[in-house]
Specification:
By secondary structure, this protein is mainly alpha-helical. The protein is built from 21 helices and 4 strands. The strands form 2 sheets. Strands 1-2 form a two-stranded antiparallel ribbon. A two-stranded antiparallel sheet has the order 3-4. Bound molecules: heme C (HEC) (4 copies).
């Protein structure tokens, strides 16, 4: 009996107290060492977990983040077909897949993804290679502008396919946390008045992830060459980087031209850190990314942070259990419920924005055909365009955020609700402008999505085009 109580007592605090960093073997990792197998000499168990991100996670556990099943990656553009129209005009409209494990990141870019995704140049290595900071320092402006392959060739041969390494997140001597990308994240933190030298350990636990799981903008020169990389956080504060701030900064920096409308635009991608840190229940509860994505794991006699980073739905929701009294199955249902609501509203916003986009296409086509539309009310048109762009950026914000809304369900719905309203206003104003100019717009707009979805890219697409489209509340039936 006494023995049982002791074991139970140990189990209760096992989940709460952090693991010891202390080396398993007394080996020193050399300063600046990037090779993970060298780090493995001191911390072999962490290395094993890190290496397992190469394997697909268990199948059938996640509803929206199926990622990779060992054969194919899931094609986001056929899952959310309006994105194929709205992102058409650059690489993301050609190939855009659900993410898979960390071990793939650079290999994915080099060997699997359509080459059109690499046009921005060496700058694309910034959240894919542990050499990013070094290369940016060494090459200066050339790092951003020179072709991707040329900059990648500066990486030592054995590491030209190596993705995130221990050195991205850890100091060599004691494996304490640091982030390696001062040239992006450090600059961004200072811009919102947060001193990178004075971070609480729990803040650092999220920031090591925010090196890459945050949105960024790539400024261009007149010849459309990349000249830098920045996080569009200016004007925000720690814990308060709302979508409005991100949009205001990103749209000042046009990066591409949307094919359907011809509008030059900025872009927003994977804003996991921004959405999570903006007043979410879990941010306010003091949680950090690894609490859910790197729960403590038992490795032999030791306890470690699980370095097989993946969806919590695939790691048994172990990270949730120390804080929640529900079972893992109950929590999984709560996650699905929040995601279903988000995806339903995302679909509504997406089809609404796509409809407005097709009306702009019609307007521009008529303008070209008739050599101008003198009856078109310029002020109405300008207001329609502004509402359309506001809707588009909100859609991109939630559509590229990787949790399907779970990281901050209330905020995701607010952002998408605004997107629906803005897209509807854009459509109404543009219809009014078109009618005034004597252009007949069809009551039901054909989005012609198959034109964007079929025959994409130079490469034979290796992903599954036949994903069933999730439509939890029948939103699409209204379009
Ligand atoms: C160096 C950049 C970088 C850092 C740092 C980083 N990630 Fe990632 N992460 C990526 C990229 C890129 C992908 C997509 C990889 C692919 O699809 O090839 C990804 C994918 C993921 C996935 C999906 C994995 C799967 O199996 O589908 C999760 C979850 C994730 N990251 C969480 C985190 C967390 C939590 C942290 C911090 C502890 C973190 N990441 C740090 C770049 C990074
Ligand atoms: C309270 C728990 C929790 C916290 C904290 C959290 N996440 Fe998540 N995250 C989730 C859940 C749940 C999902 C949805 C997984 C699914 O649908 O399979 C998710 C999904 C993701 C995905 C996509 C995973 C995939 O398989 O494609 C990434 C990437 C990610 N989170 C990164 C982050 C980052 C970066 C942070 C911190 C800024 C963070 N998460 C904080 C719970 C959390
Ligand atoms: C994407 C960031 C990231 C990468 C890459 C990464 N780690 Fe970690 N690691 C973490 C986080 C976050 C923790 C939790 C630290 C904390 O809470 O203080 C951690 C904890 C640790 C610890 C402390 C003990 C523990 O288990 O909590 C060791 C040792 C460690 N990692 C070794 C490694 C090694 C070796 C590699 C490479 C094979 C590696 N890590 C790769 C983010 C990372
Ligand atoms: C650090 C402790 C902590 C962790 C880890 C944690 N939660 Fe929570 N969770 C909370 C707290 C605190 C609240 C807020 C309760 C409230 O506001 O009433 C919350 C709220 C929630 C809610 C309702 C609010 C919302 O955002 O929709 C859900 C669902 C939820 N958590 C699921 C999860 C899941 C799933 C995981 C793991 C992937 C997880 N939690 C991990 C502490 C945590």
């Amino acid at each position: 009996m006494r023995r049982l109580i002791l074991v139970l007592g140990a189990a209760a605090c096992w989940a709460c107290s952090p693991p010891e960093a202390g080396p398993v073997q007394a080996v020193k990792v050399a300063p600046g060492e990037i090779e993970p197998s060298e780090w493995a000499k001191a911390w072999p168990l962490h290395y094993l977990g890190w290496g397992m991100t190469r394997e697909p996670g268990p199948a059938g556990k996640s509803r929206y983040k199926r990622g990779w099943d060992g054969r194919k990656t899931f094609d986001r553009l056929s899952e959310y077909p309006y994105l194929a129209l709205l992102f058409n005009g650059w690489g993301l409209g050609v190939e855009y897949n659900e993410p898979r494990g960390h071990a793939w990141m650079l290999e994915e870019q080099v060997e699997h993804v359509d080459r059109s995704r690499l046009k921005a140049g060496g700058v694309c290595l910034s959240c894919k290679s542990p050499y990013a900071s070094r290369l940016a320092k060494e090459l200066g402006r050339d790092y951003y502008a020179r072709p991707f392959d040329e900059v990648r060739a500066r990486i030592p041969a054995k590491h030209r396919l190596l993705g995130v390494s221990c050195s991205d997140c850890h100091r060599e001597d004691d494996a304490s946390l640091r982030f390696d990308r001062d040239f992006t994240l450090g600059v961004a933190l200072r811009a919102i008045g947060k001193d990178p030298a004075k971070l609480h350990p729990q803040e650092m636990r999220s920031l090591v992830c925010a090196q890459c799981h945050a949105t960024f903008s790539i400024p261009k020169d007149k010849e459309k060459r990349s000249v830098g990389l920045f996080f569009p956080w200016q004007g925000g504060r720690w814990g308060r980087i709302p979508v409005e701030t991100v949009i205001a900064n990103a749209r000042r920096n046009p990066e591409w031209t949307q094919a359907v409308t011809g509008f030059p635009m900025g872009f927003i991608r994977h804003p996991e850190f921004e959405l999570f840190s903006y007043d979410s229940a879990h941010w306010n509860a003091g949680a950090a990314c690894p609490d859910c994505h790197m729960p403590y794991a038992k490795a032999g006699a030791r306890k470690i942070s699980d370095h097989r980073i993946m969806s919590p739905l695939k790691n048994g929701l172990r990270g949730c259990l120390p804080c929640h009294s529900q079972t893992a199955d109950e929590l999984r249902e709560r996650v699905f419920a929040a995601q279903d609501r988000t995806v339903s509203l995302l679909d509504r916003a997406g089809f609404a924005a796509a409809t407005a986009a097709k009306l702009f296409e019609l307007c521009h086509r008529e303008q070209a055909k008739r050599g101008g539309l003198p009856g078109l009310d310029a002020a109405l048109y300008a207001r329609a365009k502004e509402f359309y762009e506001q809707a588009f950026y909100r859609l991109a914000f939630i559509g590229t955020e990787n949790s399907a809304g779970f990281h901050n369900p209330a905020e995701a719905l607010r952002v998408l609700g605004d997107a629906v309203a803005f897209a509807g206003k854009a459509e109404a104003l543009l219809r009014q402008a078109l009618a005034g100019a004597g252009v007949k717009a069809p009551a039901k707009v054909d989005l012609e999505l198959s034109r964007c979805l079929d025959g994409r890219g130079e490469r034979k697409l290796g992903f599954d085009l036949s994903v069933e489209i999730k439509d939890p509340f029948g939103t699409q039936a209204n379009f």
